Amino acid sequence: MNVITTELLTKRFGTFTAVDRVTFEVRRGEIFGFLGANGAGKTTAMRILCGLSKPTSGKAIVAGHDVATHPDHVKRHIGYMSQKFSLYEDLKVWENIRLYAGIYGMRPAEIKAKSAILLRQLEFEDGRDKLVRSLPLGWKQKLAFSVAVFHEPRIVFLDEPTGGVDPVTRRQFWELIYQVADRGITVFVTTHYMDEAEYCDRVSIMVDGRVEVLDSPEQLKKRFRATSMEEVFRHLARGTTRS
Amino acid sequence: MAAIEIDGITKRYGSVEALRGVSASVERGEIFGLIGPDGAGKSTLFRILTTLMSADGGRASVDGLDVAQEYRKIRSRVGYMPERFSLYLDLTVEENLKLFATLFHTTVEENYALVQGIYGQIAPFKNRRAAALSGGMKQKLALSCALIHKPSILFLDEPTTGVDPVSREELWEILGHLKRQGITTLVSTPYMNEARLCDRIALMQEGRFLEVASPSAIVARHGRTVWAVRGDRMSRLLVDLRAHPAVETCFAFGDRHHVTPCPGATTRHLREEMEAQGHREVEIQEIAPGIEDCFIRIAGRPDVKDE
Questions:
Q1: Distance between CA B156 and CA B194 in Å, rounded?
Q2: Which end of chain A is more exposed for a tag (fewer CB within 10 A), N or C?
Q3: Distance CA B44, CA B36 (A)
Q4: In this complex, how many residue pairs, one in chain A and one in chain B, have their CB atoms less than 8 Å apart?
Q5: How does pLDDT run across A142-164, given as a tens digit for each residue?
Q6: What's the rounded Cα separation, in Å, for the pair B45 and B47?
Q7: How do B226-230 and B208-213 pair as beta strands?
């Protein structure tokens, strides 16, 4: 079963085609790596899939809803986290959880019970009353991710979630991603760390607005006779005409 | 005379110790890398060395000039590209470059040769406002502006963060080119695999230099065997390897896991044990550690961790 289906998805800004007839599917429970050079159209495509921007033409169904006609339904069934903005720094840890869960319509009793479980799982019960501002970056990122999936969305979009994080925390973050995928939540992730591309079930690489390839890291490496995803990426992105 | 001397620099923001006494010296013509995660203190050190901020303690000199006493002179001799894009968005590409040349009492024509390789790539868009540039183009413009007065020392704070691998590679080619023209570069990055492109590096965490040496010397000091392990179910394999008594540490590294084995362990024995736990196609190979292996190892050392 697919959580995302797009068909000839296109977005034009004036004469510039940012996303150019993109057709692909993302399956339930998979970790899907969405790669591409800067300017390839990743951010624009991701904004459309999150219901934040309307396609010029073509179609995208996310979590069972059409992004063009029912963007509000889409937003209710997805989670989102980016490196740039995640949590409110001036709120405490529990206040952030309650705020986000409340926005997604969860009931107070349910929020309370689930917060306790979450903080125990993260081994972060001491952090409950701390201001988010006072936390190390690694903790902020782990917490932001947990908050993004707190309402059990069908799919979570992660936009460069591990940028700037130390090597050990970066790996712990991926272990959280695996746990969430095991729960059946689909993970849609962008990254500039090519070792992280290897952790994905399937990877797509965008070049100049089009999805140039889409396959498992292993198949992609085989196809381009490459020893790493970094080589595959270089091979494809070298051909870009805009950056 | 070293290009940059850093001697016991400390800096505190309220209760946060951003720099806890760092020391190093950067030689002329060197590419020196500050390698570490966010919050390590990289940007604070940049601001102190470019005289935008004063240190609480310690001394530093740039181009032989003291950062506290002779800051005005330093400012005309260095080029600085901060982490956040900070050119004028309302000005065009060409206007930004001209403005920077004028501020430093020079002209674009006088030093054009130095920026030609970089600026040439965005010159076709010279009448476009900076706000309308893509990330990659903004970065090339910022670097051109930092270079247009022909600085002797270039400070680049995370020029490759959030940049795709191909553009990252291009930037490092540019730095190599500037080095051949005698420019000293202090550059910071969170990407550990870029460390090998520097002449020397400082591994940085929580306001400290953990090591200062050439990348090859840091790798040589790792001092332990590293095994790259793969199997048919990688996430399960990670858990089982960590639980095995012959394994001291195990971390995922792309399509392999890197294992630091306990003394006396053999690859054959570990492979058999993993196969006995149901893993198939298990391959174990001894490899040379990389900078990221070294960083994880040093950052996890009890004397570093507990402070």
A1: 14
A2: N
A3: 13
A4: 96
A5: 999 999 999 999 999 999 998 88
A6: 5
A7: unpaired
Question: In b/e form, how buried is each residue of A34-51, taking b as 16+ CB within 10 angstroms?
Answer: bbbbbbbbbbbbbbbbbb
Predicted-complex ipTM score: 0.81
* A41 interfaces chain B, CB cutoff of 8 Å: no
Name the closest residue on chain B to residue A218, using Cα atoms: B255
Judged by a CB distance cut-off of 8 A, whether residue B2 touches chain A is no
**pLDDT tens for each residue of B213-237:** 999 999 999 999 999 999 999 889 9
How far does A138 lie from chain B, in Å, by closest CA? 9
Half-sphere exposure of A141 (CA within 13 A, CB side): 26
Identify the bridge partners of residue B186 per DSSP, sorted by sequence position: B32, B155
In eight-state DSSP terms, residue B262 is P
Q: For residue B306, what pLDDT band results from cuts at 50, 70 and 90? A: very low
CA distance B222 to B61: 31
Q: What is the pTM of this model?
A: 0.87
* B83 touches A: beta carbon within 8 Å: no
Question: In angstroms, rounded to a whole number, what is the distance separating the alpha carbons of residues A10 and A56?
Answer: 6
Rounded Cα distance between B302 and B236, Å, is 28
Asked if the Cβ–Cβ distance from A233 to B37 is below 8 Å, we say no
